[in-house]
Amino acid sequence: MTNTISDIEKADVILVTGSNTTENHPVLSSFIKRAVTFRGAKLIVADPRFIQIAKFAHHWLRQKLGTDVAWINGMMNVIINENLYDHAFVEKRTEGFEELKEIVEKYTPGYVEEITGIPRADLTDAARMYAGARAGSICYCMGITQHTSGTDNVKSLANLAMLCGHMGVEGGGVNPLRGQNNVQGACDMGGLPNVFSGYQPVTDLAVVKKMEDAWGVSGIPSQPGLTVTKMIPKAHDGEFKGLYIIGENPLVSDPDLNHAKKSLANLDFLVVQDIFMTETAQLADVVLPAKCFAEKEGTFTNSERRVQRVRKAVDAPGQVMDDWKITAEIATRMGFAMSYGDSREIMEELAAVTPSYAGIDYDRIDLEGLHWPCPAKDHPGTPILHREQFTRGKGLFHAIDYTEPAENIDTEYPLFLTTGRLLYHYHTGTMTMKSEGLNERAPSCFVEISSHDAQTYDLEDGSMVKVESRRGDIHAAIKISEKAVAGTVFIPFHFAQAAANKLTNAALDPVSGIPEYKVCAVRISKAA
Q: Which residues are 487's β-sheet partners?
């Protein structure tokens, strides 16, 4: 997030898109609801479903699945043509405006309505509302990123924010709502194939040399590794022989699960490190039991870049170990003596080699966290990014054209499917499905469908149906809901017994490598 969570309450206008905020980020959603209810903020929600947060919205824009670039370009078309953009910000702090202006010229409200289904008047009103704000906050999540155009979607939102000068100010910004408690921290620590900690490129030889000196080694590769979405196909084809999975359950969470299962089964050696025996762990050659968050010391970095202490609350069962101790022990047995006394020692090394974390240590975050970048011990941290300038100097507008999703509906598969999460379960249910109370609230998978489509297919609420895509099929119960819109069904992906990801498309965003979980074509029939 460029801004803090509490900063959302300081916005005049909040644009939420690709985020079922009340179910996926229930605590953060309270800031949005308070801003609207008590502080007079205006809320725009762009989502294919009439989700709970849309009940608080002044404008609900219902776009067809996979058409986000088109409606964002449409808003910018209105803002530029009506001269509502922030001229001073654009002139002083950005470049590439003329190229952006040229590309969005054709995205008139009428043209956008043809592509997205959003009524032109609604799009125009929303554009005027966002541009007219003193400070406008954009909040988005995986409904924006999990597309073959996911990178373009994010860049388009950044275009919109810069166009209106809503960057580097309180109540503004482009704010991705992270999907797990330490996703931000994992990325910060180099949990990506192309960077070291703090997003230092592995291709930068000066950075490689710094890391080699710090670790007392030589020959660190300076070429990016593979994303997981490239590992799995290579395993299927026999090019990839071994895989070590930590805290992930791809046999429920990966797209096109039938293909993923064949791929993992084709490995010579599979290791899974987790706190429960997941569906993936059951396939592993070796399972390494690890401590959960409440059993260990360390830090988490949350969505707003706040680095916070995590402290042990209870003793771990049996012989389970800290994740870092498992890693260190394996490294030692493989010939590199990786010896740390405790997690504090690891944090000190981290700060020494990571410029954005250089000023953070356990003492400074003992009571309250700090936002990175925090480059020195006397630096207060950075709650709001880009106040004076962007990391690259001037912000770059990207001129982006709309492209269709990888798979569209047709006569054989006439319905769109989108997937997501429920309030009561988390990800693949590894933890939440161990809770009796949560299982009572959400016991099994369902197919959310509109009353119109239910009538069209002669389906009753609660009846069992077969849902098929070009990749597989599942059986689940029908749930007729006001959230659903005709032509689109929604299935939560938590449930291994009726895994939605047996249906989803493994087509990837060409830049990020993220699969297109959020749109594919399906058909429905009554279960035999």
A: none
Angle value at C-alpha 83, between 82 and 85, nearest 5 degrees: 120
Concatenated DSSP letters of 32-91:
HHHHHHHH--EEEEE-SS--GGGGG-SEEE-PPTT-HHHHHHHHHHHHHHTT-S-HHHHH
Q: Among 430, 426, 499, which Cα is nearest to 179's?
A: 426
E strand or H helix at 440 = helix 436-441
d(CA 112, CA 76): 11
4: left (phi over 0), alpha (psi -120 to 50) or beta: beta
- pTM of the entire predicted model: 0.92
Residue at token pair 């990014």: 385
Q: Phi/psi of residue 463, each to 5°?
A: -75, 150
- Neighbour order of strands in the sheet with 298-301: 298-301, 306-310, 370-371
- Residue 409 C-alpha from the chain's centroid: 25
C-alpha 393/C-alpha 383 separation (Å) is 19
Q: Are 29 and 57 in contact (CB under 8 A)?
A: no
Which residues are within 8 A (CB) of 391 and not within 5 positions of it... i.e. 6 or more apart?
none
Peptide bond into 443 cis (omega under 30): no
**10-residue stretch averages of pLDDT, the chain, 528 residues long:** 95 97 94 96 97 96 96 98 98 97 98 98 98 97 94 98 97 92 91 95 96 94 92 93 94 90 95 95 96 94 95 94 95 93 95 97 95 97 95 96 96 96 87 90 94 95 96 96 94 90 93 93 94
Domains of the chain: 6-177 (3.40.228.10), 179-225+290-377 (3.40.50.740), 227-289 (3.40.50.740), 415-526 (2.40.40.20)
Q: Which residue, 64, 67, 58, 17, is CA-closest to 37? A: 58
Q: Write down the pLDDT at residue 432.
A: 86
Of 304, 338, 335, residue with least CA distance to 323 = 338
Distance CA 11, CA 7 (A): 7
Residue type, 31: F
- Contact call for residues 48 and 23 (beta carbons, < 8 A): no
Please identify which residue in the block is written with the tokens 């290579």.
234
Using only C-alpha atoms, the chain has a radius of gyration, in whole angstroms, of 24
Report the DSSP beta bridge partners of residue 464: 477
Q: Quick one: pLDDT at residue 430?
A: 85
Max Cα–Cα distance, the chain, nearest Å: 68
